[in-house]
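Chapter summary example.
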Amino acid sequence: MSHPDYAQDKQISRLRIVVTLVLSLLGGSVAWMMLERASAVLEQRTVAAIRGSLADSVLAEVAEAMAAGKPAPDLHALNPFTLLNWQPEQYCGELQGNAAPQPGCWHYLTDRKWVVYRLQTRWITPEEGGILALEIRRLGAEVLNSSHNVPRNGTAAVYEMDDVSAEELRRYIRRLEL
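The structure predicted for these 178 residues follows.
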């Protein structure tokens, strides 16, 4: 027969192991959620930075043409990533047809003339399937300038990077092979 103190020590030892395992799982879960959230914030900031770089490159292209007294080039059909001095690590190339963008990648859709990014984190996935879509838009056929930077012909085309309308984006997502 075993001593009653020995059986109680054995139960306390088992309880310690169970409590240690539960606390370890709980701590691991909290740490995992914090890392996931940090990853989502990092992705959000990276997307904002690349989006800003693309918009700035479009504006710079127009400004350089205006400064040289030339008409602005037709940027609507241009892949904006070709205007960047560097290719971001997240740029995964051009897509054609209904090919789905890879999570965590920027793509240029040649058929639609859009730049798309598919989110890879679950924390900030919007209603549109986690896909951000941008396009170069021509703001007006002609813009009259009263400054000294007026091109020789007195007009300039103005372009900007802007969000694709929600309706167009929904139609695009419905056709994807997700």
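To summarize the output: The longest strand covers residues 131-140.
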